[in-house]
Design a protein that fits this description.
The chain contains 4 helices and 16 strands. The chain is an alpha/beta fold.
Length: 228
């Protein structure tokens, strides 16, 4: 599909600029673009201001020009998070908004009348990254009739997670002599800690309705880096 990745928010500045105290660099779009490139999908880049009327005009045109729209930011409960309302005004059908998971809970997905696919990702970089690999990658493979494969790994150490949510836990993978893959969880400093992803190879999927996970138990793993 012809794709575009759209960042949102007046607090974002180009990566070449030094942010002020109230600003952050516009980095998410490059991580998403690189992932899509790895899967054979080119994408253009756009940015939206925190102005509802301008958002309506820009997104209206993007829906005419692109088949796949990937937004990052603007889908939570912030004062200027207009994106869900704007998409509704543009007659985009919302299939769901918010998932019982961490990180990435505010994820929004919908389809336009012309069958454009709209993935509206959370603004925090780790949340955005998780949703790209869990949902956008899955949709792309299913659209190409490529059956997604599930990789399983063993936990290296005990993990406790008390919220009643699916937990996507960053982990580094080790290959052992007995042929098993073992995941060493490396928890970062929340969904804004993009740098922690450099230390890890993917996400463990720890299920909901459970708060204790023990060493040697086996769980699904979604890799974003293959080193084995």
């Amino acid at each position: 599909p012809k794709a575009v990745i759209i960042s949102t928010g007046d607090e974002l500045v180009p990566v070449s600029e030094k942010p002020l105290l109230h600003q952050i660099r516009r980095s998410n779009i490059y991580g998403i673009k690189n992932s899509l490139n790895e899967w054979g999908l080119e994408a253009d880049l756009e940015h939206l201001p925190d102005d509802k009327e301008k958002m309506l005009a820009i997104i209206s045109q993007l829906l005419k020009d692109y088949e796949l729209l990937v937004f990052t930011g603007g889908v939570s409960k912030g004062k200027f998070d207009y994106l869900p309302d704007v998409l509704e005004e543009l007659k985009v059908e919302k299939h769901f908004h918010k998932i019982q998971q961490r990180p990435g809970k505010p994820f929004w997905f919908g389809t336009s009348a012309n069958n454009n696919k709209i993935f509206a990702l959370p603004g925090n970089p780790v949340s955005s990254f998780v949703c790209v690999y869990m949902y956008l990658q899955y949709w792309l493979k299913k659209s190409l009739n490529v059956e997604p494969e599930t990789l399983y790994v063993a936990l290296k150490k005990d993990v406790q997670f008390t919220p009643d949510l699916v937990y996507f836990l960053e982990a580094a993978v080790e290959s052992h002599a007995d042929g098993t893959l073992v995941a060493d969880p490396i928890a970062g400093n929340g969904s804004g800690d993009f740098a922690n992803l450099v230390k890890t190879d993917g996400f463990l999927i720890l299920p909901q309705n459970k708060n204790q996970f023990f060493a040697n138990e086996v769980y699904p793993f979604v890799p974003y880096r293959r080193k084995w």
